[in-house]
Amino acid sequence: ALLEIVDTVGARTGHAHDLYMRDGDGFVLLYSVDSEASFEAVRPLRERLGRLRGPRAIPLVLVATKADRDAERQVLSARGRALAREWRCPFLEITAKSKLMVDQVFTQIVREMEALAPAEAQVPDVPPSAQETWPSNDIENYHCLSF
Ligand SMILES: Nc1nc2c(ncn2[C@@H]2O[C@H](COP(=O)(O)OP(=O)(O)OP(=O)(O)O)[C@@H](O)[C@H]2O)c(=O)[nH]1
Ligand SMILES: [Mg+2]
User: Fold this and answer.
1) Which segments does the entry list as coiled coil (predicted)?
2) Of 38, 40, 132, 145, which is the most exposed, with the fewest CB atoms less than 10 Å away?
3) Superfamily of segment(s) 3-121+135-146
């Protein structure tokens, strides 16, 4: 099994970024709890993702980072939870200081990709035997994008 992670460095606009959003298999949208602006930036990203992908399912996890900076908090947990409920995706509030929490982000996005992918695999050409073992044997070539 291979999981390729693409991290958008800095820029969240442009042609290359649009291609990653169009072709990725899973998406981790992050904001920082200490930055209202970062929270306000995730909705436009989700909307652009929807436009670029058309009717395809969008395996997505919403992640709030820097939970350790509670004294500087600008975004209440409830707001992240509410947004994730609206988008029907998992929500995690984490600190990068915890390996366990960071691991949970990857666990969640893989789970979402597995949960949403079978619906797309219901094409007539796929033999039933292949569907039975799918997707556990076929996580290869998943491309997960974080931004
Ligand atoms: N306290 C704290 N600092 C963090 C956490 N996560 C990241 N940082 C710090 O925040 C700064 C920015 O982190 P990055 O991971 O580079 O943020 P980014 O969103 O990837 O930034 P770009 O790639 O430039 O878009 C760095 O100084 C990190 O050390 C966290 O959970 N807690
Ligand atoms: Mg970065």
Assistant:
1) none
2) 132
3) P-loop containing nucleotide triphosphate hydrolases (3.40.50.300)
